[in-house]
Amino acid sequence: MTNQWRDLKNADAVLVCGANPAENHPASMYHINKARDERGAKLIVVDPRFTRTASTAEIYAPIRSGTDIAFYGGLMNYILENSLYHEEYVVNYTNASFMINEGFQGPAELDGYFSGFDVAAQSYDKSTWAHQTDDEGNILRDETLQDPNCVFQLLKKHYARYTTDMVEQVCGMPRDKFLEVAQVFAATGAPEKTGTILYAMGQTQHTVGTQNVRCMAMIQLLLGNTGRPGGGVNALRGESNVQGSTDMAILYHIIPAYMATPNAAKHKDLAEYLEKETPSGGYWVNKPKFLISLLKAWWGENATSRNDFCFDYMGKISGGINSYAWIALFHAIYDGTIKGLWIMGQNPAVGGPNARFERKALEKLEWMVVQEIAPTATTDFWRAPDVDPASIQTEVFLLPAADAMEKEGTIVTSGRLLQYRPKVAVPPGVAMGDIEMMDLIYRELRRLYEAEGGALPEAVLELNWSHGADFEKICQEINGYWTQDVTDDDGNVVGKAGEMVVNFTKLRDDGSTACGNWLYSGYWYPADDGDGNMVTASKRRGQKDPGDLGMYPYWGFSWPVNRRIIYNRCSADSNGNPWSEDKALIWWDAAEGKWTGYDVPDFSKTKGPGDAGFTDAFIMLPEGKSRIFAVRNEGPFPEHYEPLESPTTNPLSSVQFNPVVKKWDVDSGQDVGDNVGTADEFPIVCSTYRLVEHWQAGGMSVWLPWLAEAQPETFVEMSPELAEEKRISNGDRVIVSSARGEIEVVAVVTPRFKPFTVNGKTVHQVGIPWHFSWQGLAKGGTANFLTPHVGDGNTGIPEYKAFLVDIRKAV
Amino acid sequence: MARAMLIDESRCMGCRGCQVACKQWNDNPAEETENWGTYENPPELSGITWTKIKFNEKVVGDQVKWLFLKQGCMHCTNASCESVCPTGAIRHYGETVIVDQEWCIGCGYCVSACPFDAVHSLHEVTGGGEEKATARKCTLCIDRTSNGLTPACVKTCPATALDWGDRGEMLAKGNARVAALQANGHPKARLYGERELAGLHRLYVLVDEPSAYGLPESPQHATTNLLGQWLGGIITAGVLAAVPFWLLFKRQRAAEAKEETSGGGEQ
Amino acid sequence: MRRISRRQFLMGSGVSTGALLLPPVVPGFQQVPTFPLHKKVGESRTICPYCSCGCGLLIATDESGHIINSEGDPDHPNNRGALDPKSISVRQLSTSPHRQGKVLHRAPGASAWEEMTWEDAIPLVARRVKDTRDATFETTEDGVTVNRTNGIAFIGGAANNDEDCYIAIKLARALGLVYIEHQARI
């Protein structure tokens, strides 16, 4: 989230697209309802099905799964055609005025492609997408936004094709509903108004997921809503600490706090890494300080400038999402490359796409270690109802883990707020915290490498493990500390060896600081709780809320540096004054000569009017302006393409499917394989989703009696029209099938689902919650038996939200 | 001063936090259920399910409405269960109608008398292996409200659909909400519970007719043949030997006295 | 529509329902008596482990440390005491008999788990990790140092604490793992 949960109360309109906060983030409704009660805000829900959120909304607009870009494109077209954008914001804070290479062409001219597509390579030569620059490399701009090659005019041309008729034709969204949504949300383009967009996996789990999110960002920039109270692009993250686990980079492509994983093709050594990964401008110029401090945290005194701070001890990748991301990872298990799988609290046998394929992959492992709080379909995959244990040679260890209440730690909300949790209950039996068990494993590994040697034993033996399982010491390492006494040029002591750094502005690139995650720096440092007490920042419970905007700056610690709304320079106009008094967040105090207000400025504190770059509000970007035009693998502007499995042809161009996405085809045609269905055989659009009563792959919910009572099993929701066509009655058991497999579930026939008219044809849509398996008290068919092995063009996130099925009554 | 729960069904989002919070606070176990073609479960209130969300769907033109109803004991001023109880086990403590488990003989009259289907028998095997059936229902978390806390369901509602406080204030708040809803596209909005059965202590803001939610339009007090029922109940349960007869009458008389002081009477 | 038969779980559950403690004094009818709380509300504060709203919880435990009450923290600005059904159920999350309290090992081809001690399991786990790492380790590719193993993957988890994740990634990267993914991707 760019903003905070509590900030939702400041919104004048709340647009929920591809999220279901009433069910998956219920506490958000407390703040949304405040906005409705106190500001008269309208809640708008755009979703293929009438959800529990829709039931309480002012406006519900149905949309066929997988057509969000057509909807957003229509919305942008509406905003541009009717001049409802926030002009001062757009000119000053975005790259709308930037001039783009004259060779750039888009789908309007090239039938669905942007200029530079290489069919054989399935990728773009992006040279025509570059900025026009002067001789010194400065980007050329047209602040009148009139030049046909400026971003603004290219944008207008691109989305002119996304008419209201086109939205209706592609999305199946009734025209009057679309216009109602557009009118209410576009009204937040007025300078004194803000609107927020809430999204979740309904936007990301598509082959165009990244571009869906781009659309939301672009709309919020056009309307001047980002960086302001009640605005922003707000990802409602799905798990209690998926923000933290992402910050900590349990992902192939990054290392902690969003630095790239070293890549053999680009980074032969530390110098080359720093040269290529450090931009020329913006805050990331500090990357060498962050990286070297990370290496110091990991390899301690063994990391020195003479050995590249042990940079080479980190494994390098050779490839991208099609080599390492989730789907590729499971293919590497399937083909025998990966022999051992180590799992910490995850359940791929239920949560992975094409789950029959992924379960079969598990059977090929030599060993699997699972740190888990209860048995799942993954821990016990070798004795699932449809498998013969004797045929599976995988050795499995189930290490019993303490749950959230039974150990100490911090977690991060969707709003980047770190909060400390003490241990408040005892774990069952011999269960222990993950830190404790990983400490035991590390110590044993160290003993083995000391005794026997092996492959690059130094990386293990020289690892700085002085913290052991001591929680306090681990936190101090993450926060960052001085590795030696440091004095400034005048001889003043600025840091003492072993003491924590106050925040990441103190980090250095000479090895004199260590820091496990620069974004968290300060989280374990004592900070004011608003009443003058100095408390470990993420343990704070201060109730003060200066400005009454719901920022609560003395509660917990929000990364970075306790900033509650990022990009908040945009909460003030180009002169540094608030856009409106009731949404004043930070502003330029001319008398004091600095920025002040109710949040930590996301800007140079003393840069004032008249200083160069005073309106370069996006400090993480070298150019200082947010990117309406942004280079992504499939283009700089989002263009609608149909999902891999679609019931129709793409009305916008002859490019049916995201052209940069890899189509996996291992064992296609087999019972278990990368199979893709067609609309002839599987005419119904299906989407998977979650219920308020359960959680994710069920590992923390399906065996809880109260939750199992409320939602006891898998079901499929469908319209009465489809049920009649298929001769299905409410409550019947039915078979839902896709090219990947089939499951038997209960039919819930409901008018909350309605057939769509798409391209003049009736298209049915159904939906299935994905929490369930054969394990637990609440059980049933696993929805992911049906989902395809195909991922987004930039991130590889699977397309769970739009695929094709058929349905028949079970006999 | 009587208190009441205000349930704003226009704000309820069917998350069922209240349903589980009730079980959690009252230590009620789960029921074994199956999906029966709806999100709703358990299908009915029971001896171990004292509040639940009823999921109603209604199509009006091309619009669908998902109307949620938080079911449970209404704590009627003129409470049928109290009137028919032969042992005086059911009685008012202030606004709250409580089944005294020590006195309940499991006759089930209250179960059939309740116009809201909110009272249910629970068969329990005690530690000693003895079978026992008694009437159970929502207590408005009287132990919480006695100690300055709100009922567990009210506290937990993330939709701010539930409130608890002085009944007059809840009525005023409910009526204001109804007026706001009527002015904003909900002409059928109304407050339910102000006068029904001499006044309920669960007040509902509805955006449609009560029947659309599965609520009786005009709930009726059960026919009362009190003496016959006391005797029948006593004989049924075979407790003549165990319970001093005079005590039963004493408790019942006291309950009647209470009813008079609260100004109850059928509308 | 199928109505279903319901068996109430009460039998042998050891849970007593309707357990209101009657007021200590037999009341007069002019005055509503005070009913004592039948259990404590709890003062231990924690944060909900389900969605990312970060709601505050109040937890009460019995003398042995098992949760007997879970409800919202009224002082927490994100939820002000409110909780959804999952958050409230953390009590069952912690105390359910379905929880895993033993170290289990499944031998190749076996049809059942066998119990193990930590002392026996940890050396076996470390041995598997080391043997696979050593057997699959790549030091260079096209002359560039890569120091990685493709033979081991690490996945999970988005419900773990920051510090759990930090220790996991520190260890995984030090071992040269490159197949590292978790819920955030899917």
Summary keywords:
heterotrimer, A: 811 residues, alpha/beta, Dimethylsulfoxide Reductase, domain 2, Rossmann fold, six-stranded mixed sheet, five-stranded parallel sheet, 31 strands, C: alpha+beta, Phosphorylase Kinase, domain 1, three-stranded mixed sheet, disordered N terminus
Structure explained in plain terms:
With 811 residues, chain A is an alpha/beta fold. Chain A folds into three domains: 5-94 and 162-235, Dimethylsulfoxide Reductase, domain 2; 240-413 and 417-523, Rossmann fold (3-Layer(aba) Sandwich), CATH 3.40.50; 684-809, Barwin-like endoglucanases. Chain A has 23 helices and 31 strands. In chain A, the strands form eleven sheets. A six-stranded mixed beta sheet of chain A has the order 25-27-26-31-24-30. In chain A, a hairpin with a 5-residue loop joins strand 19 and strand 20. Chain A is globular, with a radius of gyration of 27 Å. Residues 239-246 and 255-267 of chain B have low confidence and may be disordered. Chain C has 186 residues and is an alpha+beta fold. Among the domains of chain C are: 44-95, Phosphorylase Kinase, domain 1; 125-185, no CATH class. Helix content of chain C is 23%, strand content 24%. The radius of gyration of chain C is 25 Å and the shape is elongated. The two termini of chain C are 36 Å apart. Chains in contact: A-B, A-C, B-C. At the A-C interface, helix 2, helix 12, helix 16, strand 10 and strand 11 of A face strand 1, helix 1, helix 2, strand 4 and helix 3 of C. Strand 12 (395-400) of chain A pairs antiparallel with strand 4 of chain C, so a sheet runs across the interface.
Mean pLDDT of chain C: 88
Radius of gyration of chain C: 25 Å
- Quaternary status: heterotrimer
Instruction: Write down how many β-strands of chain A occur, each being a DSSP E stretch of 2 or more residues.
Output: 31
In helices, the fraction of residues of chain A equals: 10-25%
Strand tally of chain C, please?
A: 8
